[in-house]
Fold this sequence. Notes:
Helix content: 55-70%
Order of helices and strands: HHH
Distance between the termini: 32 Å
Radius of gyration: 19 Å
Number of domains: 1
Shape: flat
Amino acid sequence: MIVEFLDYLRAHLRALSRLGIAFIVLLLCIDIFVIDKQHAHTAIQHFPGFWTIFGFVVGAGLIIVAKWFGRQGIRQKEDYYD
């Protein structure tokens, strides 16, 4: 069942990427128009969309670091224990 779901997502990759971009734009709009900036602690927090952009950059950075860390030795070959 999971394999079928993953195959479905791969077949509709363009729609999935558009959905992800729409979600980021929605978060950006919420951050710009809804979130109160009056009580920000630093000057950069007054910038519209700061937390959306910050969250995206940090999330992407975590993925890149995790992939690099995995390639440095955490991932082992299938016959490692043989």
